[in-house]
Amino acid sequence: MSDKNDVNTEQNIFFESRYASSPHEVKGMNTEQLRQNFLIENLFVADQFCWTLSFFDRYLTGGVMPTTGSLALEAPEALKAAYFLERRELGIINVGGSGLVIADGVEYELAYKEALYLGKGTRDIQFLSHDKGTPAKFYLNSTPAGQAYPSRKIARTDAEVVEMGSMETANHRIINKLIVNSILPTNQLQMGMTELKAGSVWNTMPAHTHDRRMEVYFYFEVPEGQAVSHFMGQPQETRHLWVQNEQAVISPNWSIHAGAGTSSYTFIWGMAGENLDYGDMDFCAIKDLR
């Protein structure tokens, strides 16, 4: 079950923890319980860091939207760390107006849909929007790290791009691999962005699981009045969650992660686990889903 606790409002930090759940527990959950355990509803609050720690691979999902000046990234009390990246690495993707990240004195300009990787040991991290009327929205994923790798910005032109699906099966999509080991070294964090073509609504179908890592999906560019139905659970015991714009879903390693929207949309996927093999997936035939 989820365990929610506001750790440090004085430093503009909201922090909550989510315990890991087994397939047996999830089978008995009602809609509210599923949402409490797996759905992250509020990621962007003005001038506040919003964090959710999943006990699946100790994955941190967060967001920050600076509107009145620069915001410093500090370690929530629950991390028991001297500074945020003392024992972690961090992936950042901007899903708002243009902004600036300053990491140990190095400035990184991030436009819409551009990414930044910050390695373990980076101490002083500041977030800033260029226009408070159209603030940056920095979507954040963080995982434990043992090795310190170089920080690096990943522009849209740096991405490894793969086209998949078709209009006939309503899943024509462009996969942008941003923070993956074919582009830069990381400990275990991987992040990318999948853009659905107009008229396509299905993502990650045929579905898959991967016992060796967990995943988080962040849905955005969902038009006003539309939504995405996210599918989760074991292939023979699926569940669904209705997800609104700029919300995220935690996906355990034993769960499928797929969705269908009432319109096209975009989502960011983040992964952590024991390997960096993007293709390490156990596929589920569509006819076998239940």
Automatic annotation (TrEMBL):
Coiled-coil stretches: none
Listed InterPro entries: KduI, KduI/IolB_isomerase, KduI_N, RmlC-like_jellyroll, RmlC_Cupin_sf
EC number: 5.3.1.17
Pathway as given in its UniProt record: Glycan metabolism; pectin degradation; 2-dehydro-3-deoxy-D-gluconate from pectin: step 4/5
Keyword Manganese attached: no
Cofactor note: Binds 1 zinc ion per subunit.
Cofactor requirements of the protein: Zn(2+)
Reactions performed catalytically: 5-dehydro-4-deoxy-D-glucuronate = 3-deoxy-D-glycero-2,5-hexodiulosonate
Superkingdom of this protein's organism: Bacteria
Annotated function: Catalyzes the isomerization of 5-dehydro-4-deoxy-D-glucuronate to 3-deoxy-D-glycero-2,5-hexodiulosonate.
Name of this protein: 4-deoxy-L-threo-5-hexosulose-uronate ketol-isomerase
Organism: Salmonirosea aquatica
